[in-house]
Design goal:
three-stranded antiparallel beta sheet, alpha/beta, 35% helix
Length: 438
């Protein structure tokens, strides 16, 4: 069928059909990556690259990635491999898609020698060890670019490889706190700060790492030159705060109150409202007065149309105005269920959503139709829910082949392919404690 004979919705459905992903080429199938990382900030970068076809070699210590021991106490902490010979923390499975797992103890000279031998064979190396650790091991960018001048070397961490605070340890909430992000986040307007419910700065760092690799690969295509990429949790978080720094600079101080809570300082209504049986997020903003008037008519509060100036976005932003707006909205929503309010907003063409849990998302018909979340039968860890690789590409989509492998599962295959090691050579590494194979 010719494109124009279809609706545009059906056209998009067809070109993004997840069932056809494995029939299409992979954009990064000629890119090889050494993944020498732990936790989330670090492993997630090669995870994305692997989903779009890169051959990622995950290098773990014999004890495994630290996140192999992370799960939800009281629920599921570890999952068994299908062969029953090894376990992995459920927290690890989202960050190891499609990776080839090998084990090398980089604390030992022999392990470092093997890693150096692999460097000329790859395009990208990603590491997230404490600043200076790779330098102490003779594996920093200065050392490795001598072995491979075209190498793209990615370091991801908390505070940077240099600067007054570079030696301070960090985890994601440190990034949220030190980026300014946490100061804006609260359950109530002007209330105490709180962290996001997920590792937001780790994910921000991941996005910046992947962008950096793509830019560096494009630069290398034009010049043949590799380069080093540095990504920090706090600076990645800062990049997500848009005009907050402009505002502080122009004011010469922080605005008061600082934490937004359920509101938005710039526009309203654009936030959380209470219903009879829960909470919903809704908005009625846009160019001109129509969205505001549409909501007020839908909830039977036409009286607010004359009481509240709303010809442009800035008129409904002051907090005293917002208070009146939300009181009017909740005079209706508190008498109705979340489902009723959501249906009303959808019918009126206003952005809204109930507060959905992961279980809600898994069972949602929209996501099911798009196969956003789906059950994947992994050859190593059995059936698990995974999310379709994002973003969706029509010609070269991502795909998941494995969610993870046991520690060192492909040590022999990788070292044989790239360095010509025999099984006896690899067994010697195991005997010497340099490697393990599960």
């Amino acid at each position: 069928m010719a494109d124009k004979e279809q609706s545009y919705s059906d056209f998009c459905r067809e070109i993004f059909d997840p069932d056809k992903h494995f029939e299409k080429p992979e954009a990064l199938d000629d890119i090889k990556v050494l993944d020498v990382t732990n936790y989330i900030l670090g492993p997630y970068v090669p995870n994305y690259l692997a989903e779009f076809g890169a051959e990622v070699i995950k290098v773990e210590l014999p004890t495994g990635d630290a996140f192999r021991h992370v799960g939800r106490p009281g629920y599921i902490t570890t999952v068994d491999a299908v062969d029953g010979k090894s376990k992995s923390g459920i927290g690890y499975l989202s960050y190891a898609h499609n990776k080839h797992h090998i084990s090398l103890d980089l604390r030992k000279e022999r392990g470092r020698e093997i890693l150096k031998s692999l460097v000329p064979k790859v395009d990208v190396l990603v590491e997230n060890f404490r600043p200076g650790t790779f330098s102490e091991w003779g594996l920093d960018y200065r050392d490795l670019k001598k072995l491979n001048p075209a190498l793209i070397y990615v370091w991801e961490g908390g505070w940077g490889q240099w600067g007054q605070w570079s030696n301070r340890p960090s985890f994601d909430p440190v990034g949220q706190a030190s980026s300014g992000m946490m100061s804006l986040t609260s359950g109530e307007t002007g209330g105490p700060p709180t962290k996001a419910g997920y590792w937001l700065c780790d994910v921000a760092g991941t996005m910046h790492g992947v962008i950096g690799v793509m830019v560096a690969l494009w630069h290398r295509k034009k010049t043949g030159e590799g380069q080093m990429i540095e990504v920090t949790q706090n600076e990645a978080g800062m990049r997500f705060l848009d005009y907050q720094f402009d505002l502080a600079g122009l004011l010469g101080k922080n605005p008061e109150p600082l934490t937004e809570g359920p509101l938005d300082w710039a526009v309203s209504p654009y936030g959380l409202v209470k219903c009879k049986d829960g909470i919903i997020w809704l908005a009625a903003i846009g160019t001109g007065p129509r969205p505001f008037e549409t909501l007020m008519k839908a909830i039977g509060r036409e009286d607010m149309i004359d009481k509240i100036p709303h010809q442009n976005l800035s008129q409904t932003a002051p907090l005293d105005i917002q208070k009146k707006v939300y009181e009017a909205v909740e005079s209706f929503t508190l008498k109705h269920t979340v489902e009723e309010v959501e249906s009303l907003c959808v019918k009126a063409g206003l952005p809204c959503s109930r507060i959905m849990t992961p279980w809600d998302c898994l069972n949602n018909l929209h996501y099911q139709e798009r196969k956003t979340l789906y059950w994947f039968d992994d050859p190593y860890y059995g059936k698990h829910v995974v999310i379709q690789p994002q973003p969706r590409l029509s010609r070269t989509p991502g795909r998941v082949r494995t969610i993870a492998q046991p520690i060192g599962r492909e040590t022999f295959e990788v070292l044989n392919k790239y360095l010509g090691y025999t099984r006896a050579d690899v067994q010697k590494l195991v005997d010497e404690g340099v490697s393990v194979i599960q």
